[in-house]
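Example record for the data management plan.
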Amino acid sequence: MRHLRALAAAALALLALTGCATATAQRAVPPLPRTERDRDDLIDTAQQVLVDRCLARQGLTLQNAWAPQHGGASDPRERSASDPPDRRLQGALFGRGRPGLSVTLATGYTVTAHTDGCLAAAERELYGDQRLWFRTRVVVNNLRAEAQQRMKRDPDYRDATARWTRCATPAHGTRPGRPDPAVSTRCARESGLTRVRARLEPVLLARVRAERHGQLTTYRQLRTRALRRAADLYAERTVQVTLKKGSDPS
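Corresponding structural encoding:
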């Protein structure tokens, strides 16, 4: 659902962009945004356009996404054309059946995704290779988690963690699952855990990034492709909006 909300927010960005259409139908791809945030917005907006088009071909819109479900959660594999619009939309948007993509990270967690559905189709259009983009994105987005996993195996970190545990454990009783934040912060400082983290994490993260250099390069290449396709899609849509307003295409 958080992704749905992100898509809806991107739609508002698209309205702002298309409202700036010029009086010409000459197709000109605008320069790519300079900031990372603006580039993310451009890609999100293009993805929203592609998702809307895909859903429209099935007679669906994102307006049905937040319709209330009745009768509790349902198995997505049991969806059919006779389902209520909101259930049909979930399947059309996110895919049906078993996920076709899976990546197990160095941390031990497994991330999955579907190869069908409008979101998957939009990613194929933007990035060219959804499977490669999925694998690369999942790994790159979890580099810090991988570095933190390695840090837990460091002897200095483990010793500092043990001291923190003794500090945060009451004199009589067991340590609570969630110690008071003030106690946790004090113990992190007194045990040296804060200092050890500050020393180890940047070193380990740099090491992980060096080991994942190939995947980071692929990530940047695919994202650049998506940016260019998004800019091209924006130019196409700008022309369409201009023509619909009755502007002279000459």
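Summary line stored alongside the record: The CA atoms of residues 30 and 141 lie 28 Å apart.
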